[in-house]
Amino acid sequence: MTATTIFRARRIRTMNPSRPLATHVAVRNGRILGAGSLEELVGWGEYVLDDRFDSKVLVPGFVEAHSHLMEGALWRFVYVGFHDRVDPDGRLWPGARSIDAVVDRLAGENDRLAGSTQALVGWGLDPIYFGGRRCNRHDLDRISTTRLVAVLHASLHIVNANTAALEAAGYLREDIRHPGLPAGEDGLPTGECKGPDAMAPIARQVGLDAGLLTADAEAVRAFSRLCVRKGVTTATDMAGSLTPESVAALRSVTGAHGFPTRIVALLRHLGQSPQQVVDRAVELREQSTERLRLGMIKLVTDGSIQGFSARLRWPGYYNGLPNGLWYTAPEQVLAVLQLALAGGVAVHAHTNGDEATDMVLDAMEAALALHPIPDHRFTLQHCQLADAAQFRRLRTLGMCVNLFANHTFYWGDAHFEQTVGPERAERMNACATAIASGVPFAIHSDAPVTPLGPLFTAWCAVNRTTSGGRLLGAHERISIADALRAVTLGAAYTLKLDGEIGSIETGKHADFAVLDADPVETSPQALKDIGIWGVVSNGRPVAAGSP
Ligand SMILES: [Zn+2]
Q1: From ligand 1's centre to the CA of 302, what distance in Å?
Q2: In 3-state terms, what secondary structure has residue 63?
Q3: Is 0.70 surpassed by the pTM of this model?
């Protein structure tokens, strides 16, 4: 007979609708025997009572259904984002609130690198906060005219390079005609490289390339430390190249005894044919382990709204800027959706602008006409600007959405004032409309685009407060209970894992977030400030900050 542990807590909020509250949960072999009272659970036989959570509240381990392992890797570069941010080891990095502040911070790092030829890389840049002023190569030339300097934007869809880096990438020419490489008045590129094609040569030169996107062992462990700090027990790596080497590395790190995070890694469609990407996803599915789930595809259709690279329908951007870019051609999207449906492979498609959402909805309708597969759970990622009619189509097509709730805080003011204007800004990331339309939904951080932290993400969906203090879209606010569901069961559903995780009930993995207070009884404003002890992952308690 295997050992049974019964955890006692101040309260257990199970998210199991037929038994929402409990005081004890019994765990055997990393799985839940049952949640209820001690009297009920002793029926399972011999047990050890673990009372370390007597003053804590257990909820299902949070599921971050759109994040990137890159969050763990980026901290080896210089953080230059606008907002303060905490790294995986708990250190606070203050925000860089002007281009001068960004340049100053990077210049300090440049001094530290004196004597080496290593490239200097920053991340988290967000020019939307700089009053319309875009960073250019001359700004970064103030740091160095000889060292390669590159700064990745918070959106991850744009990189800025200095003149030396542009030259190294072969970009310092007047005859470059690429929509992702705008030219300045002198006819040479400004240094902004938008979209994966334009970014790649710079990324290769400075070490921000595929190696980083797939993340090495140290980055994965850093990511996992951050997950524990935030109560997350399952997290996605939303867009990996998943080469045989990177899969072997991921399997090895996640397979280490006691590794506390279940990683769901999606294969990014980039550079392969639609048939190749679906075949590879089928192959990967077979290599899944309990800690590493493989076999889904990520498609990126457009850019970001705050970077003005998202595809918008009429009337376009509020400030009159031209429409954004297709990152994957509509014909390619259609081909991938058809082949994936036929192959039983789930596709998660990034759409930011409402034109991109329309494009995928049209493609999905055509693909489903050919392959009417039930319960496919194809999911739109972000789907930020969808209107109510699009949500109704999502419902009809059996799709899910994973809404980017954190955007309201970080870019809500910019959306209201610059990108899409007041009316459309209020309907962005429309959680209440998702509920009203019956579309299964999750909410996410897209870490490293915004910081990982499902309680903060839930706070964003519940309060819809911008960083400037504006209430943006009062009618799209949702209850704490609905937000809590979105970061547990809702997120698990989009990953087809709702039978295994997302609630505390018999048979599921014993994954809990250990909180200082009950989120449902907290005031909406205080939701993001609830203390997090750490997690229980497959029955094993792991405290935040433990190695
Ligand atoms: Zn993403």
Answers
A1: 12
A2: strand
A3: yes
